[in-house]
Amino acid sequence: MTTHTVRPDSILDALAIELPSWAFGNSGTRFKVFGTPGTPRTIQEKIADAATVHRLTGLAPAVALHIPWDTVDSYTELKSYAADLGVRLGTVNSNTFQDDEYKFGSLTHTDKTVRQRAIDHHLRCLEIMTEIGSQDLKVWLADGTNYPGQGDIRGRQDRLAESLAAIYQHVGEGQRLVLEYKFFEPAFYVTDVPDWGTSYAHTVALGDRAAVCLDTGHHAPGTNIEFIVAQLLRLGKLGSFDFNSRFYADDDLIVGAADPFQLFRILFEVIRGGGLAPDSDLALMLDQCHNVEAKIPGQIRSVLNVQEMTLRAALVDTAALTAAQETGDVLAANGIFMDAFYTDVRPQLASWREGRGLPADPMRAYAESGYQEKIEAERVGGTQTSWGA
Ligand code: PSV
Ligand code: MN
Ligand code: MN
């Protein structure tokens, strides 16, 4: 059995969390999307906001794109624009859930023409990835049905497998297809990729360049997510995370806000399974929306939460834990685990930051930076971006 032991400082130095471009746009519920002064009108402005998060935290060197929301004429220019601001372009998220033709599905649709349109969209995403040097094509599908009998469950899986295989053929060297699962919504009866097992089955069939994307918000209440993390890492099929937190369903709230202990347990399994080791290709990403709170500080808070729980998880005395586990000392094992969780690592993190020329308190540094006032004054006119546009 391989157990990965780590030095907390090397873990902190290795931690990189990709930010989703859409986190900087307006979002909300079907009841209301609130606009906020300073919200980006363009992908360039979203990247500038993401770069600000990275500048203050040292934690977020990449920005994920969503196509077609973040479509530009020249991706090479966008790549160098990002590089000039100190960040790179990361995961490309496909979108086959907004057009009328996808009402009854995209990669699973019964109509071959619609399936081909959806496949072609993914091929375009792969081309963009090649232009910007991005590793991951993230596929999240809204495909599913609402009523028993509405669709042929088995036939939909067969068409999905066929469509994914057509896309996978074009996944180049150094690229991956990561298949995200979600148990429900927008479909309320059958979701075509509802769970890690389905995503695992399809990605195993595809091959080594395909892996599972685990979005922490996409599970039924009570699901033991750290078990899934442990299992997928063990199988070599955990490709990436979409971090967020949820109270009810797919809330996309700030990661670590709803249940910091769950985040700690997940990160413990990530470290245990080698997910933060130097040779790991596990990609960590946020997938969040900020409906009522300020967006840039919301993203800063999010990456800090991941960093804080990562350090706490790295503090677990694994040698003592193994000894307690092997002697059947249940309470000692649990106590060792909880000791790490209850450790206040904030002073240690502040000095880690200062040692790297970063502000000790990035939230305060943002508030005092004047950046918010500047974008509110400058970003006048135009159309603010939002989730879904
Ligand atoms: C919808 O649930 C979703 O939040 C998925 O998690 C995707 O990753 C994201 O939208 C962007 O497509
Ligand atoms: Mn997601
Ligand atoms: Mn989601």
Automatic annotation (TrEMBL):
Domain Xylose isomerase-like TIM barrel, residue spans: 73-228
Domain of life: Bacteria
Keyword Nucleus: no
SUPFAM superfamilies linked to this entry: Xylose isomerase-like
Cited InterPro entries: L-rhamnose_isomerase, Rhamnose_iso-rel, Xyl_isomerase-like_sf, Xyl_isomerase-like_TIM-brl
Keyword presence, Transcription regulation: no
Keywords, alphabetical: Isomerase, Manganese, Metal-binding
Biological-process GO terms, alphabetical: L-lyxose metabolic process; rhamnose catabolic process
Gene3D superfamilies: Divalent-metal-dependent TIM barrel enzymes
MF terms in GO: L-rhamnose isomerase activity; metal ion binding
PANTHER family to which the protein is assigned, alphabetical: L-RHAMNOSE ISOMERASE
Designated name of the protein: Rhamnose isomerase
Species the sequence originates in: Rhodococcoides kyotonense
